[in-house]
Amino acid sequence: MPEISPDLYRRWYRSFEEDTDDQAVYRPADFPFPPRRAPRPSLEFRPGGGYLEYAAGPADRADASRGSWEPGEGDAVRVRAGARTRVLHIVAHDEQVLRIRK
Amino acid sequence: MDNADIVETPARRRCGSEDVHRRLLNESLNYRLNRAAIENLAFAFATGEEQPSRAEVVTIPVVVHVVHNTDEQNVSEEQIDTQIAVLNEDFRAVNADLKGVPAVWQGLVADARLEFRRASTDPQGNPTTGVTRRHTDARSFSDNDAVKFTARGGADAWPADRYLNVWVCQLGGGLLGYAQFPGGPPATDGVVITHTGFGTTGTATAPFNLGRTTTHEIGHWLNLFHIGGDDGTGCSGTDFVADTPNQAGQNFGTPAFPSITCNNGPDGDMFMNYMDYTDDAAMFMFTHGQILRVEACLAGPRRNLVVPAGSEPAGGE
């Protein structure tokens, strides 16, 4: 069974406004985001290796692509959503924020 | 028409997850078939093969499910009524800001001849205010439809063939609202609006405090698509409406006219359309082509829902 920090087991919403040049910032659902008509892109790690990526759908809810995650070297997590696989470099995280290298 | 039976019954071993799988497969198949029929009818209206036949304005009975974790989220009846008043302006094209439609598109402005009223009879036939309220332990809801089920901290839908279900709650992730197109499962049919984007008073907060989030979501519920065509910022997507200009992505904020994309000059994007993503103060029209799709929806999947204006709204009779 792969393991990552339990802090990560939730759905994280992109907080564009907080992005830096080299980091994409994500926040949990309850973060006081400025409201928006389009759903924010989000991603979700689940215990046991499940992974989802959500993108804007046609009725203003997000459409999910399902896949899996597995730990890589160092700060790397290899994720697959649908037919797309990529490696996320998690620079920092706790219960309130997730920072991924751009 | 129901082709759910084309899913083969498992011949031998069975387990619970097979039942779940089979249910989802059936729902998915039904949904695809429903959507095909709905779009075929919309196409027939768009081409003139079918004509809108109703002469009168019709009313849609509404039930508002207020699902609140804090007192603030427990929105007042006044806030609910300001929202319904906005719908009754926007879907009758009597909103004051219509004068902001550029002259070139004034002739496209359409009256949907639809009105909304809080239901006066509940599903059991008892008098109702058309509002249900429940306290929830959930600090916010996502777009996963939990708010639509009592067992998941929300409130169960009233029968979707007799009521427009509107859930008002705290949505997470900064989302203002979301909808379900016609043809989907009745238990989740309706629109969900975050309380700060609902109505024009109380907790409604600028720039989404003019009730247009609900107008937009009910547009989806009546089978309208985003005018940007739902292909990201591409120029090949479509809203299946002939009189809305082809435009790239959705617009945000309060754009200035004209805003040109996809070689759609000189007039550019119709960013003041309710099915764009602009601020409440910047969206104020439906077009005739859009309302033809609404007519097809009211003649098809939502035909049981409408009652002649002036008569007692349905529900329970």
Overview of this structure, please?
Chain A has a single domain, classed as Lipocalin (Beta Barrel), CATH 2.40.128. Chain A has no helices and 8 strands. Chain B is of the alpha/beta class and 317 residues long. Chain B has a single domain, classed as Collagenase (Catalytic Domain) (3-Layer(aba) Sandwich), CATH 3.40.390.10. Chain B has 4 helices and 7 strands; from the N terminus they run αβαβββββααβ. The N terminus of chain B is likely disordered. Chains A and B meet through loops of A and strand 5 and helix 3 of B. Chain B: This is Zinc metalloprotease. Chain B: Keywords: Disulfide bond, Hydrolase, Metal-binding, Metalloprotease, Protease, Signal, Zinc. Chain B: It comes from Paractinoplanes aksuensis.
Topology, element by element:
The complex is a heterodimer of chains A (102) and B (317).
Chain A: E1 11-14, E2 23-28, E3 42-45, E4 50-56, E5 62-71, E6 76-81, E7 84-93, E8 98-101
Chain B: H1 16-47, E1 58-68, H2 77-90, E2 114-118, E3 131-135, E4 164-169, E5 177-179, E6 191-194, H3 212-221, H4 288-299, E7 307-308
Parallel strand pairs in B: 1-2, 1-3, 1-4, 4-6
Antiparallel strand pairs in B: 1-7, 5-6
Helix pairs in contact in B: 1-4
Q: Which CATH C-level class of chain A is it?
A: Mainly Beta
The CATH architecture of chain A can be given as Beta Barrel
Question: Number of DSSP helices of chain A?
Answer: 0
Query: Any low-confidence stretches of chain B, pLDDT <50, length ≥5?
Result: 1-10
The greatest interface between two protein chains, and residues involved on each side, is: A-B, 20 and 29 residues
CATH topology of chain B: Collagenase (Catalytic Domain)
What is the CATH H-level superfamily of chain B? Collagenase (Catalytic Domain)
- Tell me the structural class of chain B: alpha/beta
The assigned structural class of chain A equals mainly beta
CATH architecture field of chain B? 3-Layer(aba) Sandwich
Shape of chain B: globular
Strand content of chain A is over 45%
Domain Peptidase M43 pregnancy-associated plasma-A (chain B): 155-298
InterPro entries (chain B): MetalloPept_cat_dom_sf (IPR024079), Peptidase_M43 (IPR008754)
Protein name (chain B): Zinc metalloprotease
Organism (chain B): Paractinoplanes aksuensis
